[in-house]
Every structure is written in C-alpha cells, then in structure tokens.
Design a protein that fits this description.
Helix content is about 30%, strand content about 20%. The longest helix is centred in the C-terminal third of the chain and has 20 residues. Helix 2 runs parallel beside helix 4 and helix 3 crosses helix 5. The strands form 2 sheets. It has a 7-stranded mixed sheet, with helices on both faces. A two-stranded antiparallel ribbon has the order 5-6.
Length: about 200
C-alpha cells in the first residue's frame, strides 16, 4: 500500500500538481479503530519512496512511529471517517485554487459530459464546496463536515488546493483528474457567456 502511495505521488508530481514537497495522499488501512497510511511531511513528491509514509489515527497523529505525518493528516482522517472513503488525495492543481478564488461560495458545475467521470450525470447541477484556509485541521475538518454532501467527493480550500476521495487511490485519482478538467473549463470560460457565470 505504501508503494502505491509513492507511485501516485510521483504521477501527480509529473502532472505539476504536487510541486516541491506540497500535497499529500492517504489510504485507509482499517476502520475500527481508524488507521490510515499517509505521506510524511517535507518530502519531494517527485522523489518519494515507499518508506516515506506513516500510519496515523483518527486524529491525524502518528501511531508508534517517530515519522512526522503531513500537516494535513488530521483532515485526511476526518474526511475518511465522515465520508467512508478508502483513500484521500490532496494536491495544489492551479485550476482548483483559481476556481475557489472566483467562486468562494461554491463552484457550480452543470451540463458537462466530464461530470460522468466525477460520478455524476452530465445534466446534474453539482456544487463543489469551498472553505477558507486554516492551519488548524480541526477548524478545516469542522468546515468540511458542516458542508459535507455524500454525493460530492471533493472539497476546495481557498488559496490552498483540493481534496478528493474515493473507494481507493485509483477512483480518487480518476475523480480528481475529471474535477481538475471541469474546474479548468469553468475558469477559462467564465467570461465567454453573457452575464458571466455566477
């Protein structure tokens, strides 16, 4: 499982979504008590290895390890606990940050075929929630849980990045790739139509 985390990190780094040491991934190992493997802090995601992960508990604390988990480990655990997800990915793809800047009350997506790749029908109206950034993972976790919709497996953190989750790392990746495309489309077409998008 830790090797899979490393492979996914390298993939995202190559896409430009995990620049330097930014971003982090996690995968659920067990539910009761909740345990996740999460990438460690301060490692270049393009050079990460299977050794660069640590097991955390439901509060995001390392379990029986001197390794330091990602600063966002607590939010990973909260998302996994509340949503039932098997994996959570967090990247800093530019389109996700720009979209949150333009639509701080939530990004509305509709009538786009790529929504099917995100697990929704193209004609459905999907609102991607946006929360204010904070260094306090409890505060971010509360904001996430307050606006949680089981049908929307994503969260935008203003001026920071995006969290996407799924049953496993592959589903989370597919959802993220589709969401990034959707948000890039939204950003790049916002001035095309009369009256601008709201």
């Amino acid at each position: 499982m830790t090797a899979e985390l490393a492979r996914e990190c390298v993939r995202y780094a190559q896409m430009g979504w995990m620049r330097g040491t930014s971003g982090n991934l996690s995968v659920v190992l067990q539910r009761d008590p909740l345990r996740l493997a999460v990438t460690v802090s301060g490692v270049d995601k393009g050079e990460i290895t299977a050794d660069d992960s640590v097991i955390i508990d439901v509060d995001g604390n390392a379990v029986d390890s001197p390794k330091v988990p990602s600063a966002e480990a607590g939010l990973h655990a909260r998302i996994a606990h509340v949503s039932g997800a098997g994996a959570v990915v967090h990247v800093h793809a530019l389109a996700t940050v720009v979209a949150a800047e333009h639509w701080p009350d939530g990004v509305v997506l509709k009538d786009l075929e790529m929504l099917k790749g995100f697990g929704r029908y193209d004609h459905e109206e999907v609102v991607i929630p946006v929360v204010r950034n904070s260094q306090d993972m409890l505060e971010l976790g509360d904001a996430f849980e307050k606006g949680f919709d089981p049908k929307v497996p994503a969260l935008l953190v203003a001026r920071h990045g995006v969290y996407v989750w799924g049953e496993d790392l592959m589903q989370a990746r597919h959802r993220l790739e589709c969401l990034e495309w959707l948000l890039r489309f939204k950003v790049e077409t916002r001035d095309i139509f009369t009256g601008r998008h709201s």
